[in-house]
Every structure is written in C-alpha cells, then in structure tokens.
C-alpha cells in the first residue's frame, strides 16, 4: 500500500500518466482525457482531486519551455467565467456519488472526442470564451477534464499558442477547482503526497512529448488519441452504470 492506495494501482496510474503527459506535450491537452478514465476505473476515491493536482503541475513543464504565445486577453475571459463554473462543479461533487462522477467523466471524454472529430470552428470572442470558461470550470472541478471546451475554441490557432494558453488555463483552473473542493470539505491531504510521488511520471511524459513533437504527423497522433480516449470512456461508463 502506498498512502492508502494499492501498489499495483499506483503503478498502473503512473503508466497512464506517462501516456497522458506525452499526449499533452504533443497537442496541448490529453492528461485528463487519457488518465482520468483510467484513474476512475482503478480507484474512484482518487477522483477528481488527484488528477486536479497533477493537472496543475504538468503545465509547468510546458511553460518553462514555451510562454511567448500565451493569449492573455482570451484567458482573462475564460478564467473569470471559470469562477462560477467552479462553484457549479463543487455543487455537483456534493450532490452526487462517485459512480455518477464516473459517468460524468465518461460523458465528458466522449463529448470531447465527438467535438474534436467534428472540428467545429467556433469564433473566439468574449461571449464564447466566457461560455467555454464556465463549462470548463464545472467539468474540470467535477471530473478533472476541463480542457475540451477551451481547446475547441483555440484549435485553429498556432500549436505554440494552443499549448501555452491551455497550460496557463490548466494550472490556474486546477488550483481554482482545488480551492473550491477544499472549501467544500472534500479534499484529502494524502492526495497531495500521492501526487508528489507520481510527479516523475509527468516529467517523463512531458519529456517524451517534447521529443516526439515534429516526428509524428499531428493527424495520425490525433486519431490514435481519440481512439484510446473513446475506448477508455466507454469502459468507464459501463463500469459506472453497471457496477
């Protein structure tokens, strides 16, 4: 047992984090999409707090290398709207059991996959940024997956701006969500220690993503990621609904 979690579970979570961090290093998001379903399947009690802590740490590796293309004006609208969104997410956690949170995670992943396949182009303006921030705050707090609404808006921007802007969003947004969860009385301090033990997995994934960037065509990576995310989400939904 490691901090109350089975050692085998920790090992599998570490592997999922390496994969998720690698994907995020390549395309700007992916830690939650890849890792959250796996973590929820293995130990629902770790969600969403563990993934939120890790989601706040991973972008720091990106921002150390790339921070010149950050869209600060857009982030101002997104993060302002994320405050009430965070409150909605905390309310969701207070009202629903772990199995329902699992369903929410699965549905969020499938929604993210569907939106990405459609590649709908939504104009980036204050109203759409605010809506994306609100949805991102609610989803990110309740399920640790808050990236897709904002990523959808920025998908036609340069890869550097997508990665750096989302990195700031994930760090600040995750901290906001964690504060909301703490104020709601749901946070366990042991998860901070567990996140620290798993941080090397994030570093390894960030390094791998950085090395693989430019080696593989974005379209091939994209479809592989979508397939893995969809399969994980379906498995999570089945377990949450039937378990």
Task: Explain what you see.
- By secondary structure, this protein is mainly α.
- It has one domain (7-242).
- Helix content is 79%, strand content 0%.
- The protein has helices at 7-27, 31-42, 49-65, 72-95, 98-118, 126-143, 148-154, 159-183, 190-212, 218-242.
- 47% of the residues are buried.
- The mean pLDDT is 87.
Question: Summarize this, please?
Answer:
It contains 10 helices and no strands. With 243 residues, the protein is mainly α.
Can you give keywords for this protein?
243 residues; mainly alpha
Number of domains: 1
Q: Oligomeric state of the chains?
A: single chain
Give the DSSP E fraction (strand runs of 2 or more residues).
Answer: under 5%
Cα(first) to Cα(last) distance is 24 Å
Please write out the topology.
Blueprint: H1 7-27, H2 31-42, H3 49-65, H4 72-95, H5 98-118, H6 126-143, H7 148-154, H8 159-183, H9 190-212, H10 218-242
Helix pairs in contact: 1-2, 1-9, 2-5, 2-10, 3-8, 3-9, 4-6, 4-8, 5-10, 6-7, 6-8
């Amino acid at each position: 047992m490691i901090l109350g979690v089975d050692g085998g579970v920790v090992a599998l979570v570490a592997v999922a984090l390496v994969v998720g961090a690698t994907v995020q290093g390549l395309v700007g998001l992916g830690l939650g999409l890849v890792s959250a379903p796996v973590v929820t399947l293995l130990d629902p009690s770790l969600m969403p707090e563990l993934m939120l802590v890790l989601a706040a740490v991973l972008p720091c590796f990106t921002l150390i290398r790339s921070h010149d293309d950050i869209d600060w004006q857009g982030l101002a609208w997104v993060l302002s709207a994320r405050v009430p969104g965070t409150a909605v997410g905390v309310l969701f956690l207070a009202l629903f059991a772990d199995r329902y949170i699992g369903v929410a995670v699965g549905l969020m992943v499938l929604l993210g996959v569907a939106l990405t396949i459609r590649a709908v182009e939504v104009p980036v303006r204050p109203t759409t940024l605010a809506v994306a921030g609100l949805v991102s705050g609610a989803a990110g707090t309740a399920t640790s997956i808050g990236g897709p609404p904002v990523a959808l808006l920025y998908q036609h921007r340069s890869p550097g701006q997508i990665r750096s802007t989302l990195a700031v969003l994930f760090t600040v947004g995750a901290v906001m969500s964690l504060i909301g969860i703490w104020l709601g009385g749901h946070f366990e301090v042991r998860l901070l220690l567990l996140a620290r033990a798993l941080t090397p997995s994030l570093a390894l994934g960030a390094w791998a993503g950085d090395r693989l960037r430019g080696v593989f065509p974005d379209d091939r990576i994209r479809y592989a990621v979508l397939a893995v995310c969809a399969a994980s989400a379906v498995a999570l939904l089945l377990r949450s609904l039937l378990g």
